[in-house]
């Protein structure tokens, strides 16, 4: 039971991949979003968004409240009607059927619903849903991968516990395990740390980073904590008013001028060996 | 796997309980039938000859009256309970029951209209059950149509559907009350139908209900995993490759068909569809993959026992079975609430 097992499972998908799109993409794999626009009701929430996430890397979407961060993530997950192209390893995600999409993309929402009625193992097993005809019982392979996912997230000891008895950090790990059990190449995390204190947030992000490296996952997350975003993501996309205001490495995106302009915030930027730190500064009285 | 093992044990226990309740149900009554003779007679009918069968008069009582009644009680109880568990899953609401979307109000209106104005007992089954069956399906259809139109999208969300069900139920109940007031001579008959009864059970009724029951139960029993996925919410279900609107539609159609069939032959028996799933959840955990089959079995056993009480305590008269299910079931459930904190769907 080691990391290789699960990534091997991921590569040997149970749902066969259809043939690759005829035109091989010059820019290679990973996630590429081109000209993405989305409306919620009458208002346009995203306008012509372009972003690229290298395979196996971690990108974070940052931006002030209401900038469209979650909507962008939800559009990639197929939950929001949109225009534009979303390409995963060169293939158009919107041409996938729901089951194929679910085996390629794992999504952890900002406020996941953890049903009271299930225990941790049953919940993680739900991640295997797209790999099997819905009316069929889960098979030995599904159970094996579920156990691996539980182990990877250190949940084996509490696998039989009802979800409602879990703490905030344990809940987030259960959601991650469920997404991992889907065997996706791309992991979408919407504010994974929003319900966690600093220590638990760091532990969770360390875990995600380890999974990214060991399982070869591509990660796209929203993160409202700019310091954590600057430390964990290698690429940031600053969204403001539904448009990409700036994209690049944290040191280029998290500047005092950018934060003042798009957040209306006063902050000092410190650069440490672990990345960029954002320090709020109180207005002079 | 601990979960699977517990599931098997629970199912075996529930099957044993159902068989035991059934045996008790066919033995006890105005004429007591000895259990060994009953078993021997039943086996004899199946072509296995062991022991001494009952004398022919008693065997006639057993085969023509007791067995169809017990089977019908088991079928109705099982259908209502599994439909209730499905409704609770679809609506993610512990207060949901099979009558929620207008099935009861529609059936009540159908039966009341026929009792008040219609020709009675023309067909082999009687027109009241047919009217109740149609009324139940019309009630659910109205609620679903209204909910879907209100959502203005392909699939109605569960909250919209629930509100539509309340609107349809109130309206149909108002019409039913109006018809009932206009036919006060028939009040007693209407009430006794509404409170539920299995006194007219026969092989013929069983044969009529069985196809709907089989279709309904089969679809619901294989939907456990889909309902578990639905429990994480529509968005997450979609990212797991499931179409929540489709699952809701299929499960509601199947559950409503079973409910309509049960209501047609037994009237409005309350409590079973609401509470049996909760009892099961408290005893065996909350995954729909275990709650649905166990509800079917436990609901059947529960209604067989309730019917046994209904026809014996004031013999030769009968209590309405809906009174018994609530009178016996409510205290039992109250005790269980105190002893076993459980999960909601």
Question: What are the low-pLDDT stretches of chain A, counting only 5+ consecutive residues below 50?
Answer: 11-26
**First and last CA, distance of chain A:** 59 Å
By CATH's scheme, which homologous superfamily of chain B applies?
A: ABC transporter involved in vitamin B12 uptake, BtuC
CATH class of chain A: Alpha Beta
CATH architecture of chain B: Orthogonal Bundle
Q: Mean pLDDT of chain B, nearest integer?
A: 87
Order of helices and strands of chain A: HEEEHEEHEHHHEHEHEEHHEE
Write down the oligomeric state.
Answer: heterodimer
Q: Please give the CATH architecture of chain A.
A: 3-Layer(aba) Sandwich
Estimate nothing, just give the exact number of structural domains of chain B: 1
Number of helices of chain A: 10
* Estimated radius of gyration of chain A: 19 Å
How large a portion of the residues of chain A is in β-strands, by DSSP E? 25-35%
Portion of residues in beta strands of chain B equals: under 5%
Explained architecture:
The complex is a heterodimer of chains A (285) and B (345). Chain A is α/β, with parallel strands linked by helices. Helices cover 33% and strands 25% of the residues of chain A. Chain A has a six-stranded mixed beta sheet, with helices on both faces. In chain A, strands 2-1-4-5 form a four-stranded antiparallel beta sheet, covered by helices on one side. A two-stranded antiparallel sheet of chain A has the order 11-12. In chain A, helix 6 (168-181) packs parallel to helix 7. Chain B has a single domain, classed as ABC transporter involved in vitamin B12 uptake, BtuC (Orthogonal Bundle). Chain B is built from 14 helices and no strands. Chain B has helices spanning 2-27, 35-45, 56-91, 103-117, 127-151, 158-182, 187-194, 203-221, 224-230, 234-239, 244-266, 272-284, 288-312, 321-339. The longest helix of chain B has 36 residues, at 56-91. The radius of gyration of chain B is 20 Å and the shape is globular. Chain B starts with a helix and ends in a 6-residue tail after the last helix. The chains are: A alpha/beta (285), B mainly alpha (345).
């Amino acid at each position: 039971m080691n990391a290789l097992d699960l990534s091997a499972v991921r590569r040997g998908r149970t749902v066969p991949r259809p043939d690759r799109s005829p035109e091989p993409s010059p820019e290679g794999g990973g996630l590429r979003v081109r000209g993405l626009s989305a409306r919620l009701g009458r208002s346009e929430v995203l306008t012509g968004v372009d972003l690229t996430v290298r395979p196996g890397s971690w990108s974070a979407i940052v931006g002030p409240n209401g900038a469209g961060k979650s909507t962008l993530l939800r559009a990639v997950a197929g939950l929001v009607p949109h225009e534009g192209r979303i390409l995963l390893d060169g293939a158009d995600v919107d041409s996938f059927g729901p089951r194929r999409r679910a085996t390629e993309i794992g999504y952890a929402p900002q406020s996941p619903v953890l049903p009271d009625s299930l225990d941790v193992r049953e919940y993680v097993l739900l991640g295997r849903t797209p790999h099997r005809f819905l009316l069929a019982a889960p098979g030995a392979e599904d159970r094996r991968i579920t156990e691996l996912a539980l182990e990877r997230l250190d949940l084996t000891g509490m696998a039989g516990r009802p979800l409602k008895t879990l703490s905030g950090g344990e809940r987030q790990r259960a959601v991650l395990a469920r997404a991992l059990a889907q065997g996706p190449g791309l992991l979408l995390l919407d504010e994974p740390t929003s319900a966690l204190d600093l220590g638990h947030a760091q532990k969770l992000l360390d875990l995600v980073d380890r999974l990214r490296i060991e399982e070869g996952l591509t990660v796209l997350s929203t993160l409202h904590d700019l310091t954590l975003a600057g430390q964990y993501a290698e690429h940031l996309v600053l969204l403001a008013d539904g448009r990409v205001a700036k994209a690049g490495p944290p040191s280029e995106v998290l500047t005092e001028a950018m934060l003042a302009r798009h957040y209306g915030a006063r902050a000092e930027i410190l650069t440490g060996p672990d990345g960029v730190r954002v320090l709020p500064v109180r207005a002079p009285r | 796997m601990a979960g699977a093992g517990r599931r098997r044990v629970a199912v075996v226990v529930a099957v044993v309980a159902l068989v035991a309740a059934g045996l008790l149900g066919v033995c006890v009554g105005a004429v007591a039938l000895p259990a060994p003779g009953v078993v021997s007679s039943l086996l004899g009918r199946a072509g296995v000859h062991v022991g001494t069968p009952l004398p022919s008069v008693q065997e006639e009582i057993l085969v023509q009256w007791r067995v169809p009644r017990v089977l019908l009680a088991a079928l109705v109880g099982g259908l209502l309970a599994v439909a209730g568990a499905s409704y609770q899953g679809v609506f993610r609401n512990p207060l949901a029951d099979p009558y929620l979307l207008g099935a009861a109000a529609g059936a009540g209106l159908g039966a009341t209209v026929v009792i008040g104005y219609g020709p009675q007992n023309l067909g082999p089954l009687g027109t009241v059950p047919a009217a109740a069956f149609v009324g139940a399906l019309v009630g659910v259809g109205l609620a679903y149509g209204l909910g879907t139109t209100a959502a203005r999208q392909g699939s109605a969300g569960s909250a919209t559907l629930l509100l539509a069900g309340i609107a349809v139920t109130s309206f149909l109940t108002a019409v039913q009350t109006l018809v009932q007031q206009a036919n006060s001579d028939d009040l007693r008959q209407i009430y006794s139908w509404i409170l539920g009864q299995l006194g007219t059970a026969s092989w013929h009724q069983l044969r009529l209900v069985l196809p709907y029951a089989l279709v309904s139960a089969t679809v619901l029993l294989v939907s456990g995993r889909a309902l578990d996925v639905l429990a994480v919410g529509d968005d997450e279900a979609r990212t797991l490759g499931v179409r929540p609107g489709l699952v809701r539609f299929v499960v509601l159609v199947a559950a409503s068909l079973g409910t309509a069939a049960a209501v047609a032959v037994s009237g409005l028996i309350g409590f079973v569809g609401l509470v049996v799933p909760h009892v099961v959840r408290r005893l065996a955990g909350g995954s729909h993959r275990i709650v649905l089959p166990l509800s079917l079995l436990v609901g059947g056993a529960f209604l067989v026992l309730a019917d046994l009480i209904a026809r014996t305590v004031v013999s030769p008269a009968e209590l309405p079975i809906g009174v018994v299910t609530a009178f016996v079931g409510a205290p039992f459930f109250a005790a269980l609430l105190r002893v076993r904190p459980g999960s909601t769907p």
